[in-house]
Amino acid sequence: MVRLASGGQPEGRSVLALLRAVVALVVTLTILTFALYSGYLSYTDLSPEEVRVPTAELEVDRAGRRVAYGRSSLTRESRLWFLHLEGPPEEIGDAHGRLAARLWGELDRDVARLLRHRYPEGLERWTADMVMRWDFRESDQSLAPGVRRELAALAAAMPEAGGERLSSYHRMFLDQSFVELTRRLDDVLLEGTMFAAAARPKGGGERGNLVIGRSFFADLGLDVEPDRLVTIVHPDGKYPFASVGWAGLMGVVTGINARGIFVALDPTRTDDALEEGVPLPLILRQILEDADTLEQALEILQAAPARTSGAVLVGDGRQRRAAVVELARDRDDRKPRGEDQALVWATNHMLRESFERDAQNDRIRRFTSSGYRYDRLGELLNEAPVDPARAVAILRDRKGLGGEELGLGNRNAIDNLHLTHAVVVDATAMVMWVGEGPSALGRFRAIDLRHALGRRQDRPAPLDDFPADRLLHGEEYSDYKEALEALEHARGLLARGLPEQALASASVALALAPDVGELHRLLGDVERELGDLAAARRHYERYLELVPGRLRDQERVRGLLEELRE
Questions:
Q1: For 522-549, b where at least 16 C-beta lie within 10 A, e where not — what string?
Q2: How far apart are CA 332 and CA 459, in angstroms?
């Protein structure tokens, strides 16, 4: 017995030693993993250069609608915000951040909510973040020095932009790269429509004024309408320009400079690999700051090291000419199209011969609304001469090919009732009309660009606005808005495991607005839960017709249809 007991002590000590070794190994691996992870974050982080900005006091007017900061200001006029920025890059970035931080924060919360809904937290989300950090390492080094200083000042003025393993500077740089970031998602979240017209009179002679129409759509959810921000920038030593976008955006998606050079960007997708380079919105801003003619603008585009693909509309109000340039890093052919034509237009797919066999481009043309909107634009532009009033009517078009009734909210319509902004410009007369919203329904407010972009102290010219669409105050639109509320109510009921109650609420929505795609997706889920598989199939098929841009959701719905057919 003594021998047995004494023989067990070494065995116990061996087990204890083994446990200690395992614990030590685990601790070592944990420390090593943490060190490697911290090193990875440090290596892939973007660091700003130090900038010094003169401090200024924020001054709020008695009405609370205008806030001044140094030479810059933010003003709310009805449903539009006007951000006036002036000075060198550091002062512009600092003023932008201090004046527009609240507007940026509201938009950022909407975007974060969308991403959490579509791409929940987990390994997939974490992996995507890590890959994104690697792909964007040192990417800010491609920016011009002035742009980097402005970005650094913007980030310093908005420290709340930091968090979630990203510094404020890193985060604001990614905001300028939104075109590439959305390309990484299966869904198409950004769409655009743009056209330019300068027709000659029937009797011949000089072309008419260059009239441009432009709308932009960011799919952030049916209940989200971002603030519409008109930014007037007077950069030291460069051309002043006006752009329509959102808070935090240093670049340009829709804008015109003091020389009548207009630019607009429609995001596209191609098979080309993502490359190092400058985000497209910042290239468009360079055009507005530096270009004096259409030829100069095209030269900048053709030489630009664009980070991703896009279709860019460029117009010259003085020459009364416009063209579309289709950009992709791996394609040397950037010859503009429509340069000598009276009409030119684009949506979100490429037309050049070099893109004919591009699978991604073909998918966007065929399986999103891009091809349909492009064809409908062609019909509308060729029906009658395009003046500003006609351009507004085109941006408000809610019908399909051949004038077919599509129903309110149909994603194939030029006005799908959820546009982020809608703009009409007479680039020759230097007048811009910006839609107050919602979508393209509200009043289009006239802006005297000669006054806004000039140094004159006189009052702007009296200009006529375009009144709101009659639909805005009609019963049909009220029904549509109520249908969206009923849809959200039904969605909440289904999430709580109450499909019968959800069906009742969704049926009300269906009667009010039968062409809302998201409603048919929900009804498909409800009917599948209740066991009516035939009804579920009908709603899923209708969803695929009405919401062509959400490619990830389309694949899921097609998978559900396959299951229901088995």
A1: bbbbbbbbeeeeebbbebbebbbebbbb
A2: 47
The DSSP element (H or E) to which 230 belongs, if any, is strand 228-235
- The contacts of residue 335 (CB under 8 Å, 6+ apart) are 352
Q: What is the pLDDT of residue 41?
A: 67
- Whether the Cβ atoms of residue 253 and residue 421 lie closer than 8 Å to each other: no
3-state class percentages of the chain: helix first, strand second, coil last, to nearest 5: 45, 20, 35
CA distances (Å), origin 92, targets 46, 62, 89, 106, 147: 21, 25, 5, 21, 10
* Cβ density class 340-358: b for 16+ within 10 Å, e for less: eebbbbbbbbbbbebbeeb
- Are the C-beta atoms of residues 469 and 398 closer than 8 Å to each other? no
b/e per residue 506-520 (b: at least 16 CB within 10 A): beebbebbebbbbbb
In sequence order, the 6+-apart residues with CB closer than 8 A to the CB of 353 are none
Cβ neighbors of 475 (< 8 A, separation 6 or more) are none
Q: How far apart, in whole angstroms, are the C-alpha atoms of residue 60 and residue 74?
A: 10
Instruction: Read off the amino acid at residue 181.
Output: L
338: phi > 0 → left, psi -120 to 50 → alpha, else beta; which?
left
> Is residue 5 very low, low, confident or very high in pLDDT (cuts 50, 70, 90)?
very low
CA-CA distance, 217 to 200, in Å (whole number)?
A: 31
359: part of which helix (H) or strand (E)? helix 359-367
**3 has pLDDT over 70:** no
C-alpha radius of gyration, the chain, whole number: 27
- Taking a C-beta distance cutoff of 8 angstroms, is the pair 374, 347 a contact? yes
CA 403 to chain centre: 28
What's the token pair of residue 379? Answer: 């019909």
Instruction: Give the integer Cα–Cα distance in Å for 140 and 151.
Output: 10
Tokens standing for 343?
């009409």
Query: What is the pTM for the complete model shown?
Result: 0.89
| Residue 84 one-letter amino acid | H
Contacts of 2 (CB under 8 A, 6+ apart): none
Beta bridge partners of 255: 243, 263
Element (H, E) at 373: helix 370-381
Q: What whole-number distance in Å separates Cα of residue 364 and Cα of residue 186?
A: 11
> Each residue of 465-524: pLDDT tens digit?
999 999 999 999 999 999 999 999 999 999 999 999 999 999 999 999 999 989 999 999
| Residue whose C-alpha is closest to residue 469's, from 394, 561, 547 | 394
SS3 232: strand
In this predicted structure, the answer to whether residue 527 has a pLDDT above a threshold of 90 is: yes
Point out the least confidently predicted range of 2-16, 26-40, 129-143, 195-209. 2-16
On whether the CB atoms of residues 296 and 290 are closer than 8 A, the answer is yes
Helix (H, G, I), strand (E, B) or coil at 110: helix
